[in-house]
Amino acid sequence: MKIKIAPSILSADKKKLQEEIEGIEEFADLIHVDIMDGKFVPPITFDSKEIGKIKSKLPKDVHLMVEYPLTEGFIDDYIAAGAASITIHEEAKDDIDKCIEYIKGKGINVGISINPSSSLDNILSYLDKVDMVLIMSVNPGYAGQKFISSVLDKVKRLRELKPDLDIEIDGGINKDTIKQVVDAGANVIVAGSAIFDQENRKGAIRELRDAFKS
Ligand code: DX5
Ligand code: ZN
After folding, report:
1. CB contact at 8 A, 107 and 75
2. Is any atom of ligand 1 closer than 6 Å to the C-beta of 89?
3. What is the pLDDT confidence band of residue 187, given thresholds at 50, 70 and 90?
4. CA dist., res. 111 & res. 81, Å (int)
5. How far is the centre of ligand 2, averaged over its atoms, from the C-alpha of 136 (Å)?
6. Does ligand 1 come within 6 angstroms of the Cβ of 9?
7. DSSP state, residue 43
8. pLDDT tens digits for 43-69?
9. Is 32 in the pocket of ligand 1 (CB under 6 A)?
10. Catalytic site positions
């Protein structure tokens, strides 16, 4: 499968978001947009209007770390902001099947995510309904945390169950951890600090790609 790199703009300079995106656009495959509500996780991140203003040829891959993606309007707001895909957490408090149906009904891709401590069993019933599964490899909320390697077993099991499904991994990915996640079967790779904390973004993305080829 083609390995896609999805820089997380959580680690970008928020004062010059458009410029930051133009700096990675030629080298990346998706723009990963982390949305937090201050309840599912403590921080609050972007406003959907800010995200809507971003102009890019890359798809916006929206990751909703929110308690009520549907009933509090997050899904509608990020569809309006041009999301190509919206991923919700299985730990969210809205009806998950309803959220999946709603997102699909709007004609964009839908993903389901699980936290490091949640079992893959919790999402088995959704696997035939989603376009992507996002396996969190840190506890959600912050960039720059350490990769939790015990989630690799979930990636391997999921890849065995679903040979063609997009499996995204998010948290603590850098040139030292990327090979393990690709070998386990992940094909959509989120990286925040490993890209945006470097001066040379092109070089940082090249380093990531080189690290799993070796
Ligand atoms: C964490 C977010 C991640 C985060 C990744 O809750 O979902 O997307 O930005 O940042 P790094 O790659 O620095 O762990
Ligand atoms: Zn994320």
Report:
1. no
2. no
3. very high
4. 17
5. 8
6. no
7. -
8. 999 999 999 999 999 999 999 999 999
9. yes
10. 34, 170
